[in-house]
Amino acid sequence: MGMSVTISDATDRDAEQILKLQYLCYQREAELYNDYSIEPLTQSLDDLRAELGQGCVLVARLGEEVVGSVRGVVDDDGIGAIAKLIVHPRMQRHGLGGRLLAAIEERLAAERAATRYRLFTGHRSDGNLRLYRRCGYAQVGTEQISRRLSLVRLEKAAAAPALAVSA
Is residue 164's pLDDT more than 90? Predict the structure, then answer.
C-alpha cells in the first residue's frame, strides 16, 4: 500500500529537513553554473527559520519525510514572489513541482491578495523553464548576475477568484 504526497504549511519542525533537501536539490544548479556559493547552498538554518515566520512556506510530505517545498511573499503592489521550489530528485517528473507551484499561488492569492506572480530561474535551467511555462508563466526579463549566470524573470497574472452564482 503506497502513501500519497500531501502539501501543507511548513512548521519550525520542518526547517532542518527543508534545508537538507534544499542543499540536495541545488547541487545540480550549482554544477550547471559552476558556482557553489549560490544562496540556497549557503543559507543558514537560522535564516531559513526566519523565512518560515515571514512568508508562506509550504512542504510536500511523503509520510513524515519532506520531499518538496516552496516559499512565497507578497509585496505592497500585490506581486507574489515565489522562490525555492524544490522537489527531491527521486520524486521529480511526477507533477509534484506543478502541484507545489499551484498550491503556493492559491495560498498567496487567497490569504495575501496576490494579483500577479513572479519568479526567477537560471537561463540554463531548462527543466525549470519548461515547468514554469507549462504553468502559464511568461518571460518578462533577464538580469545578468555574472559572466556565467543570467536570471530569467517570469510572471503571470493571478487567476480571478470564482464568483458565486446565485439562482
Answer: no
